[in-house]
Specification:
Layout: H1 3-10, E1 22-26, E2 29-32, E3 37-40, H2 43-46, H3 55-67, H4 78-91, E4 95-99, H5 102-121, E5 127-131, H6 140-145, E6 162-165, H7 170-179, E7 183-188, E8 191-192, E9 198-199, H8 202-215, E10 218-222, H9 236-240, E11 246-249, E12 260-264, H10 285-299, H11 303-319, E13 324-330, E14 333-338, H12 343-352, E15 355-356, E16 358-360, E17 363-366, H13 374-389
Helix pairs in contact: 3-10, 4-10, 7-8, 11-13
Bound molecules: pyridoxal-5'-phosphate (PLP).
Amino acid sequence: MSTIDKFNEHVMMTYGRLPIVLDKGHDRVATDESGKSYIDFGSGIGTNSLGYTNDKWADAVCEQVRSIQHTSNYFYTKVQADFADKLCSATGYEKVFFGNSGAEANECAIKIARKYSFDKYGKGRHTIVTLVNSFHGRTVTTLSATGQDVFHNYFFPFTEGFVHTPANDTEALEKLLDEDKSICAVMFEFIQGEGGVNVLEQPFVDKIFELCAERDILTVADEIQTGLGRTGALLTSERYGVKPDITTLAKGIAGGIPMGACLAAEKCGDVLTKGTHGSTFGGNPIACAGANVVLDTLLSEGFMDSVNEKGFYLVNKLLEIPEVEGVDGMGLMLGVRLKSKKAADILLKCAENGLLVLTAKDKIRLLPPLNITKEDIDKGTEIFKGALED
Ligand SMILES: *Cc1c(COP(=O)(O)O)cnc(C)c1O
């Protein structure tokens, strides 16, 4: 039986997959079972931040596998201590909780926000505001947080205590925060990833922080897709000049090994106490070993400048293509608006021609490896252009 037949017989059909079996990968290129290669402009899905099997990363991960692969969280490990220390100092956060996915990082943020408010104000101040078109995960609670009606189906009853307000509408936000006294947090993506690479406007972000500060409402930035170098800064909050009380990370954090992290500022860093939260695999040593290499790379001299420089380079190349109407995003998180072609068709055409891209709503979404070379940008955009001209 072929890999695809075997797969389809036994793995739940929760994804629309391409008929490609990826077998190997190195740097920016993945290879399928038949030996055909693909330049990956999606980094998996924003996960392989240093590309496939980056040498330094693979060495660190393999070394960790051979020294200690896991321990229960009733013990300490050096590799987790080192990563936590480096991550908190680099981002300016006080505390971190490690899980294994984005949804888990957001669940942690939601629990902190609610307990922070419970500890200070008692029961009833538990509502979390999120934005229309947001995406925060697939657990029953993070689906509630997700501000898209298509996700609010089948799995009733959903977790209560979430309300959605339109992005970039300062008046609506102010009205909501004035009227609803049960709000404990506002949670948002600086750039909505799954929602279509929609960039929040600076005045709206400033307003969130102003209104929340006045009311002791926590700000929660979901940087699961935008964080750790993706937009040309360690955190996208830096680009907006703000400091959320909580920031969540996942996707690219460990270079393709499952990890989620919830960062908390001093104000709410000690809200979760012994026994109030946990995760068996959270902070796993192998994931931390990979994450250490990713973070060291991001913090190396000139790396962030190179992400921005390559982002501009890629945008300019894309804008030269006649079928491209415009490009949204920042750094190496880009949403390409097409004039008349359908994003889903272009994704298929690109794959046929050896380029992997993503979509977000009706845009082509590009999240190339942060260490992509200009040569690979050239090769990839050539294929992309061909697919659009076909
Ligand atoms: C991918 C994503 C999530 C969910 O992460 P999982 O690891 O799939 O649970 C949440 N928020 C944002 C912004 C994401 O991009």
